[in-house]
Amino acid sequence: MVELARLTLEEVDALAFSVLRASGLSEDHARAIADTVTAAERDDSKSHGLFRIPGYVASVRSGKVTPDAVPEVRELAPAVVQVDGHNGFAPLALRVGREPLAAKAREHGIAALGVTNIYHFAALWPEVTALAEMGLVALAFTSASSFVAPHGGIKPLYGTNPMAFAWPREGRPPLVFDQSSSASARGEIQIHQRDGKPIPEGWAIDAEGNPTTDPTAALEGAQLSFGGHKGAAIALMIELLAGALIGDVFSFEASAMDNRDGGPAIGGELMIAIDPARCIAHGNRQAQLAHAETLFAKILEQDGTRLPSDRRYRARLRTPSEGITIPTALYNELKHLQQSSDT
Ligand code: NDP
To answer: Which keywords appear in this protein's UniProt record, sorted alphabetically (predicted)?
Structure first.
């Protein structure tokens, strides 16, 4: 059994921030990343919590990521804004772009934000949630390293390319989904490998293109998109939206440039924000949101259903008082990173 260390959310935040700062990241970057890591632990999204910190540190130490990059906002069109991350991590660039994107969406009804030259190592739900909490409908798309074969092919080409969607709700947290376009997250395959367990069928193929349940063969071969050609089409769309459209790289280009230091590859992200009240004649946001609630209620009438994000919101009720756990080995690694950078 894996030995676990228990931490309060305040301890998670302090540990994340201090390790990131000790690695050489500027205060603004360390703050923005620590916020996403703490939010992930709070919401039981373990794959984007403290588990990610060693990767962030590795990419600073290898010199791949600029630790004090200052994101730059540019207006490209009345409803299009760009943030150039200048080779820094994504959370700060996204934070900087949020207000300009929201302002443009309110003014024009719909607006887009292209975030370029960033390293995205987090979940996408924080950025769409923040916009939905401002009353906007939000979408986000980003590409990643090349791990997923195009449908019918056998070689990695697409990233695990996630997309997220958030819908504002009156008096409660937004409805959010956030999902990769691959059948499984890459980290899931790595965890099966670590634990010596086979992966489910349909997640990957080996280097010869044969279906495999062996995690090592899967990591050497290619991951598969979810839902066959349908997930592959979404991965393709995300390559275009987060790459060619906003002037950034495709996953295969990012992989070719990457130094494989354990952190993320460079890439771009497209966000779209929509003001519901500007989408219908005599728009009435409250009526639109109330209408949406009738759909959510219909879903929940059926046994066995839940809304996407409700798992995270349930965790959010628990973790502020109970705290969270991480493997002791990870805790020790983080303490070591904190101290080794201190000296
Ligand atoms: P999951 O398959 O775990 O979940 C996808 C979505 O489905 C979530 O919003 C989840 O909500 C919802 N969901 C799951 N089960 C149900 C259910 N029974 N009923 C209704 N909704 C449900 O996510 P993935 O493994 O595909 O992705 C994991 C994360 O990895 C994402 O946050 C993604 O952004 C991130 N990622 C980041 C990359 C990067 O480059 N930065 C690359 C690839 C992935 P809930 O959260 O409530 O369970």
So the answer is: Oxidoreductase
